[in-house]
């Protein structure tokens, strides 16, 4: 059974006392009208060499996730 629960707006910088909104939010991604669980990990054939300094996820128009991963010397693209 699925039920919608209104957690309120995500405002972590506001005081916690009598705050009706969401102040902590873990293991979710923001969507247009709320939050969804983080998708499960999926192995890829792409290997990143070096220490990862940053990652940004994008979704292609067909919904396929696309990552750009940066190290000190390289940028990698991973299409999932």
H/E element sequence: EEEEE
The assigned structural class equals mainly beta
Share of residues in strands: 25-35%
Strand line-up across the major sheet:
3-4-5
Gyration radius over CA: 17 Å
Mean pLDDT: 82
Oligomer: single chain
Number of helices: 0
Low-confidence stretches: none
**What is the terminal-to-terminal distance?**
30 Å
Shape by Cα distribution: elongated
Biggest sheet, open or closed, and with what strands and sense? Answer: 3 strands, antiparallel
Compute the number of strand runs: 5
Helix content: under 10%
Please tell me about this protein's structure.
The strands form two sheets. The chain has a three-stranded antiparallel sheet, with no helix packed on it. Strands 1-2 form a two-stranded antiparallel sheet. The chain has 80 residues and is an all-beta fold. Helix content is 0%, strand content 31%. The chain has strands at 28-31, 34-37, 54-59, 65-70, 75-79. It is elongated, with a radius of gyration of 17 Å. The chain has no helices and five strands. 0% of the residues are buried. Strand 4 and strand 5 form a beta hairpin. The two termini are 30 Å apart. The model has no long low-confidence stretch (mean pLDDT 82).
